[in-house]
Design brief:
Elements (H helix, E strand, L loop, with lengths): L33 H11 L17 H14 L3 E5 L3 H15 L5 E5 L5 H5 L5 E4 L16 E4 L10 H9 L8 E4 L10 H5 L7 H9 L5 E6 H15 L12 E5 L2
Parallel strand pairs: 1-2, 1-4, 2-3, 4-5
Antiparallel strand pairs: 5-7, 6-7
Length: 257
């Protein structure tokens, strides 16, 4: 039994005030790059709607899946590292295959300590699987990566993958490189049904929030939950497959310097 006291990182759910889950933080100190996000919505996303429609899945919302596809198609990376394989791997492979057909190949490396069968058996071109904890993977693996896609445990704690990613991998991403995090709920807390289940006390979103404060080296490229909360009508107009119950949680940044 874990004590639930003042020093515990696990909240006392019954004592949390009403409305805390949906109440947004002020985001003072973070440049959400609203104009840049609008440009992604208006100039990048429309380019690939005719060639790709996301499939329902148990990992990514349809808009998050489409954003992944569109940004990979638009940026045409030569090297991509995915931390945490799943449906996102299929989406990435579809985008990279289209890029390859246009003369833009990409080496794709998936770091997944518990790979499902399809990841082990995949025969995609330029695909490599490392079935290890990301903490045990040489940092040189991330050298020169154009895209680092992060979808791991979502928990910052002693020895965790999240701490390793934020403290060792993110600082090594080259200028111009993109980083994606999944299940990020900026600008709010995590959803009540996640927390009230009593088993899911993620905190990666808070760590990323702190990382972005007064940070001029990384530019917000696309923050799905924030964008929906502020411009939900524009999202609905752009994506006919968006539904009210879909939870958008992808968060993309670009290193500028």
């Amino acid at each position: 039994m874990t004590p639930n006291d003042y020093y515990s990182p696990i909240p006392s759910v019954k004592d949390l005030p009403d409305g805390i889950y949906d109440r947004p933080f002020s985001l003072v100190g973070i440049d959400m790059n609203e104009a840049g996000q609008m440009a992604v919505l208006d100039e990048v996303f429309p380019l690939y709607l005719d060639e790709y429609t996301p499939d329902p899945n148990d990992g990514l919302s349809l808009v998050d899946a489409y954003a992944l596809y569109a940004l990979l198609r638009h940026r045409k990376p030569q090297r991509m590292v995915e931390i945490g394989g799943g449906h996102s791997t299929f989406v990435s492979m579809a985008a990279l295959a289209a890029n390859r057909s246009e003369g833009h190949p990409c080496h794709f490396l998936c770091v997944e300590p518990y790979p499902r069968g399809f990841l082990r058996e995949a025969d995609w071109p330029d695909y490599e699987l490392i079935a290890e904890q990301v903490q045990d993977v040489p940092l040189s693996v991330f050298d020169g990566a154009d895209v680092v896609f992060i979808d791991s445990s979502h928990v910052s704690k002693l020895g965790s993958d999240v701490n390793h990613e934020m403290f060792e991998i993110v600082p090594r991403v080259k200028p111009g490189g993109l980083i994606h995090w999944h299940d990020i709920v900026i600008p709010t807390n995590y959803w009540g049904d996640w927390t009230q289940s009593g088993t899911q006390f993620w905190n990666e979103s808070y760590l990323l929030h702190a990382f972005l404060l007064f940070n001029s080296s990384f530019r917000v490229l696309w923050a799905a939950r924030w964008f929906r909360m502020n411009h939900g009508d524009l999202l609905a107009d752009r994506f006919g497959f968006l539904r009210p119950d879909h939870r958008l949680t992808s968060f993309w940044v670009e290193r500028e310097r």
